[in-house]
Write a structure and sequence with these properties.
By secondary structure, the protein is mostly beta strands. The protein contains two helices and nine strands; from the N terminus they run ααβββββββββ.
Length: about 180
């Protein structure tokens, strides 16, 4: 099995092989992105690839409703927990996970998976740690590039938010001491 670093290297090599003509035909690259927050003295990180709209319909289109989405592009989005947390309905031990989502028009489900570094089409439900509901909010202005936010909310509280197009899906979490 290839490590996350090897998969990233392959993705980068592939992205350099794209010609301008290919990009003009609708093939886009999704750059690496990272968000980090320190909450209750513990560090939390999300590593992901950030696709952009490029004039495409995202929710219910590029991100189909009723199907598990890799929550980004290229390689599964990594979620590194610096401490045990309570995330929605889930108590999750400190460690590394991947995050996936199951979006519908009216509700989203966040999926925490025990496998990390897998290609974005290689979701294995048998490796799910668990699932929890997310809160949906319609944004007044479209967000061109997908973004993951880790927000410190004070004390031991935080929020994980997924933001793209006119949608924000979020779930609160608490650092467990």
């Amino acid at each position: 099995m290839l490590s996350r670093r090897h998969l990233i290297s392959l993705a980068v090599l592939f992205s350099f092989s794209l010609t301008p003509a290919m990009a003009q035909r609708g093939r886009y690259t999704s750059p690496e992105a990272k968000t980090t927050a320190t909450i209750a003295g513990k560090v939390f990180t999300v590593d992901y690839y950030a696709p952009s709209m490029h004039g495409r319909k995202v929710m219910g289109g590029l991100v189909p409703y009723g199907e598990v989405w890799c929550t980004g592009a290229n390689i599964a989005t990594g979620f590194n927990l610096g401490s045990d947390i309570q995330l929605g309905d889930l108590k999750i031990p400190k460690g590394e996970y991947s995050i996936w989502t199951l979006p519908t028009e009216k509700e989203w489900t966040l999926i925490i998976n025990k496998e990390t570094g897998q290609f974005h089409l290689n979701y294995k439900p048998s490796l799910d740690f668990g699932r929890t509901n997310m809160k949906l909010k319609t944004l007044p202005d479209p967000v061109e590039t997908f973004r993951v936010d880790l927000r410190a909310e004070g004390g031991s509280k935080g929020t994980l938010a997924l933001v793209w197009e006119n949608t924000e899906a979020s779930v609160p979490f608490t650092v467990l001491q």
